[in-house]
# Entry
Amino acid sequence: MVLYYPDDGALTRLKETRPAHPLVKCRGFIFDVDGVLCRGEDPIPRAAEAIERLRRGGKKVVFLSNNSTKSREDYLAKFARLGIPVTEDDLVLATYATARYVAEEKPGARVYMVGAPGLRRELELAGLELVEDPFSAEYVVVGSAFDGTGRIREDNAHRITGALRALYHAGAKFLATNPDRIFPAKDGVIPGTGAIIGALSYMLDREPDAIIGKPSTHIVKIALARLGLPPGECAFVGDMDTDMLAGRKMGMTTVFVRSGAMTEEKLRSLGIEPDFVFDSVIEMLAVED
# Structure
């Protein structure tokens, strides 16, 4: 018989048999989204139930995504479709965190961006000036230039050249939303923001001045502040190497789920050993009676 936290004494059973289990030792959970709760717009089976059970059991939950194409407004709608109730404060997105980083460093800065409307929206909400003339840019902010099928978006057709000019001629600061090389889409992986970073870095022989998304601690610190808990009392649940590295850097319990883009074998070949591995988020809550 399988018990599911917090029903039927599942936590009591875990305390007796697996006292190091994240459900026993952790009060807060940071969840990646794509590949963990959904694949594209398709929900991972029973993911919404898992979140509801964690909350019912008194656990604090926030959601952290390296997705550089969506704003918080977009994700509120996405989570409604997934059947997971959230508020804006529950969402820590690379787009928001990057915009916040620039605005705190230089309020009202002139920004030339490569990326999707969701990134543009967060930069605007942060009070930054979006410029079309690369020679006037103080910052270049790079997100994914690809649509959900992996094609370069039409509105980004000339923006890699613009970013190159802003960095080469204007001496703009180089920021990226995340380093993800690939992104899990419905029909398979597609290129991620890392493809744009790689192209610009190769042309300029220059790495970004800062990368805000996972595995950087910039974005994880925001999520931990939302939980209001020390890292040692929290778990990071994800499907990629960046998730595990982000959690480890902060001293969190790391939980890898096999439902996303990266295989467990690939993860271990990179020398990354998560604390726990489960098939999916609902399996994290399952206890054999």
Observations:
- The two ends are 5 Å apart (CA to CA).
- The mean pLDDT is 95.
